Structure prediction request, 121 residues.
Amino acid sequence: MKLRTLSVLLVTLATFSSAAANANPVDVVSPSEAPADAVKVDIEKMKFSPSTLDIAAGTVVVWTNHDAVPHNVYLPAPIQVVGQMLRAGQSLALKFNEPGDYSYICSPHPYMKGKVTVKAK
Ligand SMILES: [Cu+2]
Prediction:
């Protein structure tokens, strides 16, 4: 299976499961539907910037890749969000519903690390 096909499938699964249950700690949302107060993270020079965020529950975070190299946002199990590979200019948006610490990486470049700390509203 081609990588692109796999990525689309994984995102489709994540989107489907978020529609099926309202209790997901993290939902994939369309970047074009991100609210004005969404928090932005740039992916640039093989780093997430800022690499740590402190946000309130319910906040949407939008990652945008500015590198020519494709990157993604991967939250390991038990959250298990595998964002699609983002080419230059592409974005991924996640809504964090539940308080907690969410560490993530770029799965092709696991040395790229970030963390989102979500506090109760
Ligand atoms: Cu990467």
